[in-house]
Amino acid sequence: MAMLMRDILDVARDTIRTYRMISPRDTVLAAVSGGPDSICMLDVLLELRDEFEFGVVVAHLDHRFRGDESACDAEFVRRFAEERGVTCVCEEENVPAFLLCHAMSKQAAARMLRYRFLLKTSKLEYCQRIATGHTADDQAETVLMRVLRGAGPRGLSGIPPKRDGMVVRPLLGVWRSEVLDHLKARGIDYRTDSSNLGRNYLRNRIRHDLMPTLEEYNPAVRESLARLGAIMVDTSANIDRQTDAAFADALKAARVGQFALDSRKFGRYDRAVQRSILRRAFEQLRPDLAPLPFRHTENILSLARREETGAVVGLPGGARARLEHGSIVLSHGEGPPEFPEQDLPVPGAARFDDAGLIITAELLPASEVDLDTSAIGDDTALFDWDEIAAPLLVRPRREGDRFRPHGMEGTKSLKELFIDRKIAFSFRSAVPILCDRSGILWVVGLRRSAAAPVTTATRTVLAIRARTQEEQAETGQGTSLEGADPEEGR
Question: Is 464 in the same domain as 352?
Fold first, then answer.
């Protein structure tokens, strides 16, 4: 692969500026395996740190795959950092032992544990960025691998220069041959991972076998693939922007285990955007799984054209798509189970683990309550405690259920309410209903009844709140990078 000689410091400098990878006063956690790419990246970062005004900390994880060889890698990285006066955090993770308890590939497990380590270390060392040593060759190989797997625009966009505002790849515009020339010119040693020389992994076979064969047909195939990846980054970003608006428009309801799309609105979009909407819905329904494969997307599109209420197609992970009265409903299997019946103590709480929900009851002096909030709330409803016919019960809907919604004359059936709120039929039994002995007080999260309103005469307020168990535990506060990057650190 012939190319003009370039100064990779200039290339990295331009990449950092173009993608705003690092800000002044940042500290960058450099993920260094000891191989040529990551060692070169560390050397480049150290050369540029004064110019861009950032600090550098080194991180190395020994995966325990190669015994003494990997232990020597760790010692090499530790010594390399020490000689340059840089803090180095080295840890071990017994990936082979981890695999005995988890059904994952070696590469996937190593990747997940590596990013867990990097994220943890970045927090402990107060680092704002995590830098990995991916090069233009990695980009070309990744794009080719995804071409072989039949990826769409997002997949073909390859390795992003910057991800989640935190992970950066300053050498993504540099070729591996340039890395080796840079290290040789500066007399910098590096380690060679023997596992990269074998043919066990698809990436290695692409690198050692397929890419050289393709270069016989097009000597610049690597540049062409990397350019395709760069073009698809912009294309994918444009599609994502369209999808943001289209998904919000077509979404009828999003509940635990369910995404319902309005069939009529969904049908207004062209096929490319429809596919993207479906992938977005499935991604949010099952974030633990890979993106929705093309054939499943096409099956849902065929289902939508049939317009047969009750028609169903199966999806990965036991999920399914079903047509229901003008809706395309993506759900976990048959949908959530019927909401269980349970007493709600006052004061106290009732846990519904299958639904991931906690409903709490609290008594408050009326003087502490803003009366303007007493009528409607998505997750909270307030009542005059003296007007409640205790005890309280949380139950699923029942045939013939009716109530008088707050602010209305006359009654309304739960069926009518569910239709008005576009709750898919198969999920109506999963909506909790709060009752006292006189009837329905609150269709939780949807509509409060007219019973026991809080007024200026109220002395004690019954405050009912429905929260997810995640909200209750105050989890999900940080950024998770575990398993998010499909590429190997180099």
Answer: yes
Q: Is the entire prediction scored with pTM above 0.70?
A: no
Alpha helices in 149-256 (DSSP H): 153-156, 176-186, 202-205, 211-217, 221-250
Are residues 339 and 430 in contact, defined by beta-carbon separation less than 8 angstroms? yes
- Token pair recorded at residue 79: 């010594």
Contacts of 478 (CB under 8 A, 6+ apart): 119, 123
Q: How many domains are there within the chain? A: 3
What value, to the nearest 5°, has the Cα angle with vertex 270 and ends 264 and 275?
90
Query: Can you give the CATH number for the domain in which 264 is found?
Result: 3.30.465.60
Residues 419 and 461 in one domain: yes
Q: Are 153 and 202 contained in the same domain? A: yes
DSSP 8-state class, residue 449: B
The CATH number assigned to the domain holding 403 equals: 3.50.40.10
Q: Which of 340, 332, 348, 356 is nearest to 471 (CA)?
A: 356
- Report CA-CA distances (Å) from 288 to 277, 278, 291, 452: 18, 16, 9, 43
Specify the pLDDT at position 134. Answer: 95
**Is residue 32 assigned to a domain?**
yes
The region that residue 489 occupies, defined by phi over 0 for left and psi between -120 and 50 for alpha, beta otherwise, is: beta
CA angle 114, 57, 8 (to 5 degrees): 90
Fill in the amino acid letter for 298: E
Are 201 and 271 in the same domain?
no
Residue identified by tokens 């299958």 is 354
Are residues 52 and 144 both part of a single domain?
A: yes
Please tell me whether residues 363 and 313 are part of one structural domain. Answer: no
pLDDT at residue 109, as a whole number = 78
Give pLDDT, residue 483: 37
| CA–CA distance, 317 with 332 (Å, rounded to integer) | 8
Residues of the chain with pLDDT under 70: 1-5, 99-104, 196-198, 255-256, 307, 333-338, 354-356, 370-378, 422, 424-427, 468-490
The CATH number assigned to the domain holding 110 equals 3.40.50.620
Q: Six-digit token pair at 241?
A: 């922007």
Beta pairing partners, 255: 258
Read off the tokens for 431. 């909506």
DSSP string computed for 245-285? HHHHHHEEEEETTEEEEEHHHHHTS-HHHHHHHHHHHHHHH
Domain finish residue from 201, 233, 265:
233
* Residue 191: closest CA among 299, 308, 37: 37
Task: Give the domain-ending residue among 270, 299, 332.
Answer: 332
Contact 134, 128 (CB under 8 A): no
Say what the pLDDT of residue 284 is: 84
Tell me, yes or no, whether 31 and 180 share the same domain: yes
Residue numbers of the domain that contains 210 = 8-233
C-alpha triplet 341, 473, 258: angle, nearest 5°: 55
Q: Do 300 and 356 share a domain, yes or no?
A: no
d(CA 231, CA 201): 27
